[in-house]
Specification:
It contains 14 helices and no strands. By secondary structure, the protein is mainly alpha-helical.
Length: about 280
């Protein structure tokens, strides 16, 4: 190099005040001149420089936002809440696609067996899908982002409700679409809705005592057992959970479990931290 940047230009460059075309010339010169780069580094504030590198590292290491997370942010959802929701395993297209496939096969089976009868198979299966989605949404055994959720600045109960609401919205939406595709959609075809809410709230209420893995397993098993017992005692009619008294009982269970869930809300930090291990 036969020339170097003037001291005033080096200082202005370091402050970000150097303007074109002198800025372009300085950029080109600094690329090839180690001496001027050393002069520029000597003028830099070490604290500000370290902070700048830390911000750059954090930006480079941060995972890219997906479509779902971006949509949540545009809808006004806070950044940390959107990240927790986007990391929920059952809100990914692979799991939702599997749910849609199961519902499609169930609807087709309903058409193939007896199109005029009540869709008992569909009514029995539909409440289990939201239950499975909620079970897979939290807990160290099933959630790959569990550690991130635990250290997030969110109360355990609030985190659970955020994810549960999102999962129920997605899965219940698919259930409703499948209901419309049944041979004879109507109020009778919606008999799965109250049992679904009862199973979900019961599972959440039991989570503080049984953990996020055992609670949904026992609740789902109890539902299948109830269906098996009532199916054997009914001939040509709908099983008891899908009758008017059964619907009333499901609504009562949902309300009672919801009250118990609210009363035990302060236990969820401890339950989600060790109950499923």
């Amino acid at each position: 190099m036969t020339w170097h940047l003037a001291e005033e230009d080096v200082k202005a460059y370091g402050r970000g005040e150097l303007t074109a075309p002198a800025l372009w010339s300085a950029d080109t010169h600094l690329t090839h001149c180690a001496e001027c780069r050393a002069r520029l580094a000597a003028l830099a504030d070490p604290v500000a420089l370290d902070a700048g590198w830390e911000r750059l590292d954090a930006e480079l290491d941060a995972p890219r936002r997906g479509f779902f997370e971006t949509a949540l942010l545009r809808a006004g959802v806070p950044d940390h809440t959107a990240r927790l929701l986007a990391a929920t395993p059952v809100l990914r297209l692979s799991w939702l696609g599997a749910v849609a496939g199961v519902l499609l096969l169930t609807v087709l089976a309903t058409y193939a067996i007896r199109p005029g009868d009540q869709p008992t198979l569909f009514l029995a299966l539909a409440p289990l899908l939201p239950l499975a989605g909620v079970a897979l949404s939290y807990g160290p055994a099933l959630d790959p982002t569990y550690e991130m959720a635990v250290v997030s600045p969110v109360h355990g109960f609030r985190l659970l409700m955020i994810r549960t609401t999102a999962v129920l919205g997605a899965v219940l939406g698919l259930d409703l679409l499948a209901t419309l595709a049944l041979p004879s959609p109507g109020l009778a075809a919606l008999a799965w809705l109250l049992p679904s809410l009862a199973l979900t709230t019961t599972t959440l209420a039991l989570t503080t005592r049984l953990g996020p893995t055992l609670a949904p397993a026992l609740t789902g098993g109890a539902w299948l057992t109830l269906l098996a017992l009532t199916h054997q005692t009914t001939t040509g009619t709908a099983p008891a959970p899908f009758t008017a008294p059964g619907q009333g009982a499901a609504a009562a269970i949902a309300v009672l479990a919801g009250a118990l869930l609210f009363r035990s809300r302060d236990r969820f930090d401890r339950a989600l931290g060790g109950g499923g291990r």
